């Protein structure tokens, strides 16, 4: 007599992603790699067979946040002893063994350059902690891109690591030296994404515009890569992040002038408006050089929306330095920007430098953020009355409503009962809300 074989239960994977878009992409790729092992994603941590925390180390309290999240997993692990707990990302890279020493409930620790080994680690065929910088390219060992979730906008990593060594930043240590992925792999991944319904790709890299590689006719820069991607049929929109001002080559600026698929949006961190502080930060450019660069970019694409990152309270920052930052912000007029209070990161050159008093930094941060919020409001308000392309990414909470991104990356809510996710439509903007726009089908 034959018995029905017990159906092999699907295993469920819960991933929590901290930090940057690079990590969002890495989480997707890890989910795909684990998909090949029979894991499907769940949104419910309590229901998971495996919990993976994909960490970020760039600012303060990253490790503390990880340890407190791990502490909160203790009851779940006690209830489900087979639950696997993994730590990935830059804190995994930086802390390594310390994580399992402090939190023995952690089953595996995997760095950003080795996550292709995650399936083998889960099967017990690789060490419990893998945080080296391997010779092999992890992308060669990951499964082909498959639809884990149908979405019309996707990330694609083209470059990793950073050689710039800004004095405050851990990235050169956690993500390692700059590496560019080869042209053919990038084009193939882009075509695969388009084949599964993607219409917008955001190219990712810690220093994305430093990308270079051998292509047809010789060495290509990032602008040339964008030109090649713009020729992929069905790829309607291209974005990229994050860029360094010193790598904004002429070819890339010209791409902003010539290529309609390259969206009029650029995130270009400047960090400070004071030459003294920029020098102490090892940024290798002055405020004036940044301003002249912005002029050239705006000559090429007058409507481009610029965003940036700022650090306030960097060691040695005076009131005058802070005033210089505010002046630069006034001069540029940003669409939005991220601003952070400086936090000393162990192992970075600025770590031991005397800190600015906490309440001084807090006050400066408030002042800068108030100015940036005013600029964000003005930029959004300037969209009202204009007709813009919007790519619908998901249904809104209200019946018949769709939410998408405009060319300028604003979220736009639109009444569109007959529309589908993935439609790219013309929308007339009618209202600006604090963090989004409202529009009507044009
Ligand atoms: N303290 C505060 N902000 C930091 N950033 C990077 N390192 C630090 C630090 N030690 C910010 C920078 C960078 C962004 C990703 O995070 O502004 O551009
Ligand atoms: Fe960090 Fe500077 Fe490299 Fe950006 S450019 S990742 S801030 S070291």
From TrEMBL:
Catalytic activity field: N(6)-dimethylallyladenosine(37) in tRNA + (sulfur carrier)-SH + AH2 + 2 S-adenosyl-L-methionine = 2-methylsulfanyl-N(6)-dimethylallyladenosine(37) in tRNA + (sulfur carrier)-H + 5'-deoxyadenosine + L-methionine + A + S-adenosyl-L-homocysteine + 2 H(+)
CDD domains: Radical_SAM (cd01335)
Keyword Transport: no
PROSITE patterns listed in its UniProt record: MTTASE_N (PS51449), MTTASE_RADICAL (PS01278), RADICAL_SAM (PS51918), TRAM (PS50926)
GO molecular function: tRNA-2-methylthio-N(6)-dimethylallyladenosine(37) synthase activity
Subcellular location: Cytoplasm
Residues covered by the MTTase N-terminal domain: 11-127
Positions of [4Fe-4S] cluster 2 binding: 162, 166, 169
Binding of [4Fe-4S] cluster 1, residues: 20, 56, 90
Keyword match Repressor: no
Keywords (A to Z) from UniProt: 4Fe-4S, Cytoplasm, Iron, Iron-sulfur, Metal-binding, S-adenosyl-L-methionine, Transferase, tRNA processing
Names of required cofactors: [4Fe-4S] cluster
InterPro entries documented for this protein: Elp3/MiaA/NifB-like_rSAM (IPR006638), Methylthiotransferase (IPR005839), Methylthiotransferase_CS (IPR020612), Methylthiotransferase_N (IPR013848), Methylthiotransferase_N_sf (IPR038135), MiaB_methiolase (IPR006463), rSAM (IPR007197), rSAM_horseshoe (IPR023404)
Sequence ranges assigned to domain Radical SAM core in this UniProt record: 148-381
EC class of the enzyme, as a word: transferase
Highest rank taxon of the organism: Bacteria
EC annotation from Swiss-Prot or TrEMBL: 2.8.4.3
Co-factor note (free text): Binds 2 [4Fe-4S] clusters. One cluster is coordinated with 3 cysteines and an exchangeable S-adenosyl-L-methionine.
Occurrences of domain TRAM (ranges): 381-442
Similarity comment: Belongs to the methylthiotransferase family. MiaB subfamily.
Subunit structure: Monomer.
Function of the molecule: Catalyzes the methylthiolation of N6-(dimethylallyl)adenosine (i(6)A), leading to the formation of 2-methylthio-N6-(dimethylallyl)adenosine (ms(2)i(6)A) at position 37 in tRNAs that read codons beginning with uridine.
Cited NCBIfam families: miaB-methiolase, MiaB/RimO family radical SAM methylthiotransferase
Protein name per the record: tRNA-2-methylthio-N(6)-dimethylallyladenosine synthase
Gene: miaB
